[in-house]
Amino acid sequence: MEELFQYMKTLRSQINDVADQAAKLSVEEHMLFTTVETLQKDLDLVKNETRQVKEETDQMTKAKGKIYSQILQNQRKIASLESDSSTLSQTLKLMQQEKLCLSAKLVDQSTYYEKVGQDISAQLTEHQEWINAQDFGSRPREVNEKAGGTKEFPNDVGQSLTKDFQAAQANFGKMEKLKSDLALKNTKSELRDMDEKSLEEDLQALLSDKSGEAEYVQSLQLQITRVKEISHIVRCSCGEEYNVKLDK
Fold first, then answer.
1. Which of 19, 133, 150, 234 is the most exposed place for a label (fewest CB within 10 A)?
2. Which residues contact residue 91 at a Cβ distance below 8 angstroms, ignoring those fewer than 6 apart?
3. Which regions form coiled coils (predicted)?
4. Domain ranges of the chain
5. pTM of the shown model
């Protein structure tokens, strides 16, 4: 009987030990389960942050591609503006050379026409004074004092003088027309000057556009540099840190 009691005591002690070990295992299992849940949450968080970083990286890559495309377009535009600027500069030089040639021709023509006009005006004045000095109606005859007789004055002298006067007037009209043509050429020269000023303004506008485009390209390149410098740090509950950044 005493042996039975001893056996029961030993069995109860073993049962208590097993119960204690089971309790310890249960506690450890709960701790491990809690740790697994925490790690799973951290893993899910890291996955979400990784996915977010990937989306941001994709967006930055697209933005970088768009910026590169804009840079290429602006570089093409700058090249086109440089070509237009060169063409306008050459055109402006040619117009300036033509302007100098035309100005010299206009000065020569103006001097010539002014001299011809003065000569014609002097001749007209001389003819008019001579005609006014004659009195063909009251002096049909001219006394020839040396011959002692009379001499008939030709009837066609007045007509001849009238024709000469009309011819002089026609020449004067031609001179007025030449002056008018000269004024027209001067007007065309002024219009050409206006075209030249317009070309100069266009050239300055193109140079201004070129400068603005260059500044815009520099700003885009600065944006790309800043995008490349962006990085994102992901922290895990286990203490590890992950640095996620855009590939250069």
1. 133
2. 199
3. 8-98
4. 2-245
5. 0.39
